[in-house]
Amino acid sequence: MWKPSMVVALVTLALAGCGSANDEDTEASTGELGARAFRARSTAYYPSNSALEGGFKDRLGKPLRTLQQYLDGDADYVSVAMDSTAFPYGTKLRIPSLDAKYGTAIEFRVVDTGGAFRGRGTSRIDICVKNYSASIDPSVNRTLDIQVGGPASPSSPTPPSTSTPAPAPPSGEGPACSNDGMCNPGSNGAGKICTAGRCVAGCRADWQCPGNTTCVSGQCE
C-alpha cells in the first residue's frame, strides 16, 4: 500500500533531477558559488590545431587566453579546462602558488573542457599556456590548491607568511626585476628572489630553490 510519506519522497527525487542540459554553458554570475577551495592534479596545454591540444578557441568558441598573455597585460584572465559539469562557464579561480611565483594576483576562468576531463569533477585542471615549452613547466604540472571565486573574503583572510625575508642587497647588485618569477626563469628554481628591484640569493618558497633543496629561514638548503 502507498503511504503519503512514500509519495512525497518520490516527488522530491524527481524534482532534484530536473536540471537543464544547457546549464553547464551559461555564464557564472558574480558570487554565485561563494568562496571555497579544492585540490586538483594540474597539467598545461597551449593553443594549437593538433588533435592533442584541441585548437585555438574555448568550448563556446571564444579565443583561448594564455598565462603568458595575462602576465604581459594582453589578457584579462587565463583560460583553464575542466570537467564541464564541475563549474559553470566563466567561473573564476585563483591559484595561490602561481600568484606567489609571479608576484601578482592571477585570474583563471573555467572556459574549456575535453574528453580527458569527463567525469573527473574538480580532480583535474588544464592551464592554458603559450607553447610546448611552457606546458612542461613543473610549477603547473603538479597537484595544486585552488580557490573558487577569486581572492579570499574578509571573513577568511589568507594567513600571513611566516618565512624570513632575505636582507636587502647593496644598490646595483644582481639583475633588475619586478617579481620573484623573473629571478627564477625556466623549470627549476635558481635560489633567488626579487628584493628592492634586484635579483639576490634567497627564497620565500620551496619552488624557488634548485634541485632537491628547500627554503629554510630565507635560504635554500
Can you walk through the features of this model?
The chain is α+β, with helices and mostly antiparallel strands and 221 residues long. The chain folds into two domains: 24-148, Barwin-like endoglucanases (Beta Barrel); 163-221, no CATH class. The chain is built from five helices and ten strands, in the order αβαββαββαβαββββ. It has a six-stranded mixed barrel with strand order 1-5-2-4-3-6. The longest helix is centred in the N-terminal third of the chain and has 13 residues, at 4-16. The radius of gyration is 21 Å and the shape is elongated.
CATH top level label of the largest domain:
Mainly Beta
Distance between the termini: 74 Å
Q: What is the C-alpha radius of gyration, as a whole number of Å?
A: 21 Å
- SS content category: alpha+beta
Could you give the order of strands across the largest sheet?
Answer: 1-5-2-4-3-6
How many strands, what sense, and barrel or not for the largest sheet?
6 strands, mixed, barrel
Output the number of helix runs. Answer: 5
CATH third-level topology of the largest domain: Barwin-like endoglucanases
What is the overall silhouette? elongated
Mean pLDDT: 77
Per DSSP, what share of the residues sits in E-state strands of 2 or more residues?
A: 15-25%
How many structurally independent domains?
A: 2
